[in-house]
Design goal:
This protein has four helices and no strands. The chain is mainly α. The protein starts with a helix and ends with a helix.
């Protein structure tokens, strides 16, 4: 139980430092357009890095994961809403899993 509190305090300290250091070091408004552009895309990059591996390891068959990913990308490029993209990719994975189970 002692290790738990050490780990908890370490995690809290690291989390606090990651959030506090930019506030302390950057006092003025950021005006460099390259830095602003970089900071604008950080949330999308992090979300992609966290989501994409989960897509390929969450199904029984790799083929169904690839089918679901391709369907999601196609619907996203057609500028459909997030609900439509998620629903259609889930349906594609479900249909592909059912078809592969019949084989």
């Amino acid at each position: 139980m002692n290790n738990f509190f050490i780990y908890l305090l370490t995690m809290a300290g690291v989390t606090y430092l990651v959030r506090m250091i930019p506030l302390v070091l950057v006092k003025k408004k950021i005006t460099n357009r390259y830095i602003i552009s970089f900071l604008h895309y950080i949330p999308y990059a992090v979300l992609t890095v966290m989501t994409v591996p989960g897509i390929f390891y969450s199904t029984s068959y790799s083929v169904s994961a690839i089918v679901g990913f391709v369907v999601a990308v196609l619907f996203a490029f057609m500028e459909k809403t997030l609900v439509i993209v998620a629903a259609m990719s889930c349906f594609a994975v479900f249909a592909c899993e059912m078809a592969l189970n019949l084989l």
